[in-house]
Amino acid sequence: MRARHRGRFLAAGALIAAGVIAAAVVQCSQAGSKAPPPAAAVFVAVNGSDSGRCTQSAPCASFDRAYQVAKPGDVIEVAAGTYPVQTVLQSQPPKPEPAVTFRAAAGTRPTVGGIQMGANNGQPSGTAPSNVVIDGLNINGQFHASYAGVGTGASNITLMNSHVYGWNAFGPMLLLRDVVNFSAINDEVGPACCQADAIQLSIRNQGNPNPQNVLFDRMYVHDVQDTCHNEPNYPDCSGSGYGDDCGSCEHIDGIQAFGGNGITIRNSRFYNAGTQNIFLQSANGGSFSNILIENTMVSTSVGSPTNSVSLGGPGVSVFSGFARFRYDTFQKDVRIYQGVLAPGTQVEFTGNIADYRGDDGGGEPCAYRAGDGSTITPTYSHNLFRSKPCGSTDIVGRALYVNAGPNTPDLHLQRGSPGLGRADPNGAPHLDIDGDVRPTHRAPDIGADQRETAIMVLGRSIGRLRLGSTRADVVGFYGEPRTAKHFVSTRGTVTVASYRVHGANLSVWYSGDKVIGVGTTTSYYSTVGGNGVGSETGALLKETKLTWLDCRHAYRRNSGGAVVYVTPSGGKEKGAHVDSVLMVSHGFDLPKVTSKKKSKKGVTDCRPKLR
User: Fold this and answer.
1) Which stretch of DSSP H or E encloses residue 449?
2) 562: β partners
3) 34 in a domain, yes or no?
4) How many other C-beta atoms can be found within 10 angstroms of the C-beta atom of residue 160?
5) How, if at all, do strands 143-145 and 174-177 pair?
């Protein structure tokens, strides 16, 4: 199987375009709080033996043997290599919390032919273990947390930092039956073709309880097809599926859920992921309550008339509690079938991009009929809909994506897209789908993508502008400047390009084609401590050490190879708020002295001009 681009999620260095900014945010916010991972206590290796003690010198061969040996809270280290399908059974007595963790050995990526949490024996007692974490594995097959018999299934299961994929899998990549407290975090699911949903959240038998408290966070679900004849990214896929008129084959979706109480999907991408990307439809007596989809991108699929999200029947009043869609980017439809909402269900659309929002009848109602015939009117705030607004702050238009094609979709926003800077300035998630910081003092962008991070790292960067980047980088993101001026510094000619962005000025200083200075007068950008233009000067002085410089009428600090200037409005005595911020590589901030105006210090005018 060939590798494919993995977008801005799992690929190192591509999570955020301005990597130094992301690193700074993480370092500042997590410094001193992240403990080192615990050492392994139990070991598994391809050449191990289940008659051994599961030590590092005598490892086990199977996951199940290692699990039976492990104590609650132990880490089982999985050595490099390729393992056959592994079945892990509940221990006797069942292991309580804390969870047992299967973790790839450092620097390795073991491959497993599939993982089954429990045996498919059909017994009512259930055989699936609880309190288990799977971390850092390739699963070339299926991951099942399902074999619970009749009754409640496995609880407290986490699949993280793993990749699940396969051809002609006769079942879902992730099959989650009757689970309680299940989490999938930073996983890639796909490619898969012909006969498998990417994720199926199901109910084993009529009368079993709904899955409960299920989280999908930072997922990348991609290239899941119901046919092998229309998949341009993987021509080596072969076989027949639902899309090839196979009557016995399954309908393919990104996520198909039969029911669930408390389903959260956030910070995730569904690219080319089945006929229905997120398909919540009652089955086997299931119902839904408390659904949250947030900071998530859903593209269209190759050759399929897809819906981005569907809330459907059969049955009436099968959705209750709340259904909240917040800061998502839906390239296609969001459909809520008439009658499926229980009376009193709270439905919210806030900050979303949706090409179409409607029902199963092809209309675009702003209100829906509940199961008892009453009317449910969702709350609408700052959405971008293609053709019809529903709330007073909704706007109409079509988003401009980096790549709208289903083969290689990229739903990040281009410059000039409708909805930039048009979301609610209050209540948006602090970070977008990529971990970029949304602004706190100005309106963020509508959708899952905040096109420009609002983080400012003193001495390094303002938003996407980073000291050391190139003119091509700047023009590619911001376009051509409104004005460009020149002056001669002690280190050569400097070009100052000015932009009008986020309601104020953004200046870029070049030496040749290299960025050697960045400055701003907009409150859009702020430090990790929340300070920037417009904030109280005293608050910024508490966050970082700055020294007053009379020559500049500004506060100053050295930061690595750069110097930072913070200018308060009204000067030092009356400057209660920050008026501008400038950071320049050393020497370029000093204009070259002329013979006519040379001062005793060798500098006549040292105040930077930002406007």
Assistant:
1) none
2) 559, 585
3) no
4) 18
5) parallel
Which ranges of 254-308 would DSSP assign to H, the alpha helix? none
84-93 pLDDT per residue, tens:
999 999 888 8
Domain count, the chain: 1
Which among 497, 452, 449 is positioned nearest to 475, based on CA atoms?
497
% residues pLDDT > 70 (the chain): 83
CATH number for the domain including 557? 3.40.33.10
Residue 285 falls inside a structural domain = no
The pTM score is 0.90
Q: Which domain holds residue 497?
A: 456-585
Cα diameter, the chain: 96
515, 470 in Cβ contact below 8 A?
yes
Closest CA to 134 of 210, 202, 67, 36: 67
The edge-to-edge listing of strands for the beta sheet with 42-44 is 42-44, 75-78, 100-104, 132-135, 155-160, 180-185, 212-217, 260-266, 288-294, 319-326, 346-350, 379-381
Q: Please name the residues in contact with 73: beta carbons below 8 A apart, sequence gap of 6 or more.
A: 38, 98, 99, 100
β-bridge partners, 214? 182, 263
Residue 376 lies in a domain: no
176: amino acid identity, one letter: L
Q: What is residue 434's DSSP assignment?
A: T
Please choose, from the candidates 207, 211, 246, the residue with its C-alpha nearest in 3D space to the C-alpha of residue 226. 246
Tell whether 463 is covered by a domain: yes
- CA 137 to CA 47: how far, in whole Å? 18
Note the pLDDT tens digit of each residue in 7-37. 333 332 222 222 333 333 333 344 445 677 7
Which parts of 132-287 are beta strand (E)? 132-135, 138-140, 143-145, 155-160, 163-167, 174-177, 180-185, 188-193, 199-202, 212-217, 220-225, 253-257, 260-266, 269-273, 276-281
Q: Which residues pair with 256 in a beta bridge?
A: 200, 279
Residues forming beta bridges with residue 517, ordered by sequence position:
509, 584
Q: How many other C-beta atoms can be found within 10 angstroms of the C-beta atom of residue 321?
A: 15
Q: Are 449 and 411 spatial neighbours (Cβ–Cβ below 8 Å)?
A: yes
